[in-house]
Amino acid sequence: MFASAFDGIKNLLIGLGVTFRNMTTEPETFQYPEVKRDMPSRYRGRHFLNRDENGLEKCIGCSLCSINCPVGCIHVVAAENTEENRVSPGERYAAVYEINILRCIYCGYCEEACPVDAVVLRDHYELADYKRDAFVLKKDELLKYPEPNQFRVSYLGNTSKV
Amino acid sequence: MIDWIFDFISDYSSVIIGCIKAVIVAIVLLQCVPFLVWLERRLMGRFQVRLGPNRVGPFGLIQPIADSIKLLFKESIITSSADKFLFHLAPAIVVFTAIVSFSAIPFGEPITIFGETIGLWVANLDIGLLFVFAVSSMGIYGMVLGGLASNNKYSLMGGLRSAAQMISYELTLGLSALGVIVMTGSLNLSDMVNAQETIPNIIIQPLGFLLFFIAGVAETNRAPFDLPEAEQELVAGFHTEYSGMKFAMFFMGEYINMITMSALVTLLFLGGWNSYGLPLFPILAFAGKVFFLLCVFIWLRSTFPRIRYDRLMTFGWKVLLPLSLLNLLFYGFIKAL
Question: Contact A25/B51, CB-based, under 8 Å?
């Protein structure tokens, strides 16, 4: 009985020592609005659409991302490229490209399915807004930021800026 | 007219000084509560490798003021099935008893101002320790009535638990304090401090100190003995149904009890305002010891998980009570020799 009591007291003191040591270490807190975390390179945050080196949209409007999406949050309407109005290097381009990021589960399947690496998920995680409509990202919003939005997708799935 | 006023003041000077002291102590005590809340949140943060509140004001010092403003302006919700009278009475009892029990605590030697000797206490009672125990255990009525009046099973359970815990640990508290009383031969708290002028009681009675401190933590319903407000089982225990300022009053009561208990441990075992060679004002020595004990309270809270209810009872009755009886017997024996 005394042995177990001694053991218990010893363990309590060890516990107190652990918390005391915690006090002397540097806190893990990020001072969030001022200091932002560097997310890991494979972090899947907000979507972006890429442009190629000529400034054309990479997306060819094949809808594979939309088909692959488990929750069906991507809406693509394709249109034909013409000589006067060339938007993408391929035959067709996405006339409408919308992602509902409220519905999105950030699984990254769209990124994987894309044959031309047009859509990527980047490390932007501040996605809050005041209006529901703002969460349905239109094509111009997806293309806008950051400039020049050319990303490389490695075979591991890491997206990096070119 | 002027003469009459002076006569009145000189005739009733002790009463007037007593009133002023009571008001000052009550106000300072109530001001300590927001600071203590801040200290607890900051220190808990540091113990858990985070920062704690640091946004409102420098080091987050204004945070408790912001919190209390929020609590003041919150709607006071009373459930329709609650007993209105007792529901309002319960938090008042808790705060009242907490403040009154502090009134018997001395925190320094008498000082002389303008030829008038003023003791640094509200009331230097000859039954000081007994008074503190009696009044602070009255505070349990507040918790039990709060739990009962809420008409909520969780509140009731919390109230019952706090009563059971109080009964079990009050014994240990009293018996371990009896060791000091036997050695000092007085219930007067300042006599006890004067008896420790050379050696603090913690060196003479380490077991008594340990028992008293553990029972004190349990008495103030602090973690790891915060069974009455166990969030995981009882939502918030006896103050589940309380909101706004009435909830804040329960909170204040708990923190003032914490201060009272730290002050009692300081007076009984750590030598009160004796600074043992350190060049400190007596009152600063006292405040420093109380502050240290409050930090230990917070340290315990951030380290230990809550113990199970049956183990709490077993620990109180089967471990602490026999130990405190042995402690008392031992020091009684020494005194008799």
Answer: no
Return d(Cα B310, Cα B312) in angstroms, integer. Answer: 5
Among candidate residues B214, B238, B243, the one with its CA nearest the CA of residue B161: B238
d(CA B51, CA A28): 8
Chain A positions in Cβ-Cβ contact with residue B46 (cut-off 8 Å): 22-23, 27
Q: How far apart (Å, rounded) are the C-alpha atoms in residues B139 and B147?
A: 13
Type of residue found at A93:
Y
| B210-249 confidence digits (pLDDT tens) | 889 988 888 888 878 887 777 777 777 788 888 888 888 8
Would you place residue B46 in the very low, low, confident or very high pLDDT band (cuts 50, 70, 90)? confident
**CA–CA dist B32, B67 (Å, integer):** 15
Chain B interface, best mutation among A12, A14, A19, by max B CB count within 10 A: A19
The Cβ of residue A52 has, within 10 Å, a number of other Cβ atoms equal to 16
What is the per-residue pLDDT across B88-131, written as a single tens digit (0 to 9) for each?
888 888 888 988 888 888 877 777 776 667 777 777 777 888 88
For A113, the enclosing helix (H) or strand (E) is: helix A109-113
CB contact under 8 A, B50 and A28: yes
Give the integer Cα–Cα distance in Å for B291 and B297.
10
CB atoms within 10 A of CB A28: 10
Query: Would you state the pLDDT for residue A71?
Result: 92
Taking the C-alpha atoms of residue A41 and residue B70, their distance in angstroms, rounded to an integer, is 42
At residue B50, what are phi and psi to the nearest 5 degrees? -135, -170
CA distance A97 to chain B (A): 41
Nearest to B169 by CA among B23, B4, B314, B16: B314
Q: Residues of B numbered 270-309 whose beta carbons fall under 8 angstroms of chain A's beta carbons: which are they?
A: 299-300, 302-304
Residue type, B294: L
CA distance A3 to chain B (A): 15
Taking 80 as the threshold, does the pLDDT of residue B9 lie above it? no
Total beta-carbon pairs less than 8 A apart between chain A and chain B: 31
List residues bridging with B117 in a β-sheet. Answer: B112
Cβ separation B304–A15 shorter than 8 A: yes
Candidates A19, A28, A29; nearest CB to B299:
A19
B68: which 2 tokens? 């209390």
